[in-house]
Amino acid sequence: MTGEFFERSVVLILHHDEDGATGVTLNKPMSAEVAAVLPDWQPHVTAPGVLFQGGPVQMDSAMGLVSVPGGEAVQAETLGISMLFGGLALVDLDVPPPVVVPELAGLRIFVGYAGWGAGQLEAELVQGAWYVVEREPRDPFHETADFWREVLVRQRSSLSLVANYTSDPEQN
């Protein structure tokens, strides 16, 4: 996908149905620490301890994405956790951290999200605007700046060659 925000973005799709899709961009750290907006959560977030821009939609909202060991076995409603898939969940950021934190293995807070209307993401996939790859369990909490490239390099297909693509063809 091209464009200022989505170029070289790694997007985790959180929900997809006939009405559309929502996700968060995993590799867009912001300069603001979590403490700037949610000071009680700062000690509990996964390094580097900053907010991440989840997407260009609703930049006035925050979403906590967490890893929950044991996944579905956790009493999610009691703890303020809404399970998604594969041990990932959304955490209610209005719940006091001590109630939820003992159940978590990772936490990242995203400002905004990526969203697609009905059929929009499917159309972009048909156009070849996105590469679709399997996620690894720690992907949502990855720390390095070159995450887009690392995701491509680990692919066991010719897609791994794209990792060396330059945005300026003159540089090839």
From TrEMBL:
<dbReference type="GO" id="GO:0005829">
    <property type="term" value="C:cytosol"/>
</dbReference>
<protein>
    <recommendedName>
        <fullName>YqgE/AlgH family protein</fullName>
    </recommendedName>
</protein>
<dbReference type="Pfam" id="PF02622">
    <property type="entry name" value="DUF179"/>
</dbReference>
<comment type="similarity">
    <text>Belongs to the UPF0301 (AlgH) family.</text>
</comment>
<dbReference type="InterPro" id="IPR003774">
    <property type="entry name" value="AlgH-like"/>
</dbReference>
